[in-house]
Amino acid sequence: MTSDHPHQPATPVDLAGIGIGPFNLSLAALAHGLPRLRTAFYDQRPAFHWHPGQLIPGTTLQVPFLADLVTLADPTSPWSFLNYLRTRERLFPFYVAERFHIQRAEFDAYCRWVSDQLPTLHFGHRIDAVRWDPHHALFELDHTQLTADGESHTPGRTHARHLVLGIGSAPHVPAPLRPLADAPDTPVIHSADYLDHRTRLLAAGHITVIGSGQSGAEIFLDLLRHRPHGAERLHWLARTPAFAPMEYSKLGLEQFTPDYTRYFHSLPQPVRDDLLPRQWQLYKGIDQDTIAAIHDELYLRTLDGGWPDAVLTPGVTVRTATRIPTGRLELDLTHQQQGSHSRLTTDAVVLATGYRERSVDTLLAALAPHIRRDTRRRPRIDAHHRLVLDPAVTGTIYVQNAERHTHGVGAPDLGLAAWRSAVILNSLTGAATFPLPARTAFTTFGLHPAPGNGQFPDQRGSLARTRT
Q: Does the global pTM surpass 0.85?
């Protein structure tokens, strides 16, 4: 699999994966057991963990348990969530519990169960460089094995016919708050690290949560439940015009189906770019149960008269943020609709400001001349989740959760993980290795629906063509 000699490639793998989050874990699970398919997946972390800083007790996934790593592509897979329950002798308790949406901590435990058993996963490996070797028609991956404390240990090299990037997203910190977030010992915490700082935050005199999505709502609710009645001293700010519910109607959810993904991909780039920001309630809203729980908690705190010391203000932008001589934090606020300004003094800030896709450009710097781009310099990505490359590169680079600009709001959604993995594996093998449905929604998107279901791709990524 690996070789330290650049001129003598060891036996290459058919597919090398960079990053092991839920999406590449899904791909690795579906690929496991496919005859004659050699894969290897790398991640610099020592083990799998899914958003450990946000596994607040009681919080649930926003997709049903059927949106596990494999079921919507292969319900017979041994890596399904139901099989995980069976191996843990928990099927009957789950059946009686009637939980359609499982807790996040349980999804994390399920994914770790899968990751612990797949021999193709290599944690503790940092990818240092990716190159194309035109002489051997292979990708070269230079990597370093890391020690338990993250120190560099052993260098190595893997050769692969094809790649799949699943490098995920990174916490987003708005520009006005970056100096404070980067400063040592300053209580400005991204929601990704919430649980690590929860005890310190609860001890703060006044806490501000920024962000109107699900994470912001869950953190506000958790803080509210653990603050004294009448002395909550909480402020929740949001840039959106309202603390709005996430779209969860059945026909609305059809925008998270393969049918809609194909439709969105078929639209012209300017139309896609205009459409995405207007779909924020599809993925940036709050689920109804969390909204109800917040209102219930606030209401209970009025039973003895008075109002809780909690302020919820949407439609607000943070213009600047500074640390004043007293050590407290001062936020300069603008209300978008009123055009008014105000200053808020607080002791700690939690940034529930979401995530941004990690750019593939740094990792693929050596391949930059071969990557075709759109008018905004973003990589072009075809319907089968492949970077559009110069024909001189005969290998394929697939991407996972890096294609929202081409595939729409479903790109980061767990509900499409298994389907996208199946599309990639069908493309890779050049066959309907995983039969996929021709239709997935009652809604017809567009007067001329986009053709194809991911089963019969062209042969660019096919092993039949590239295997030597």
A: yes
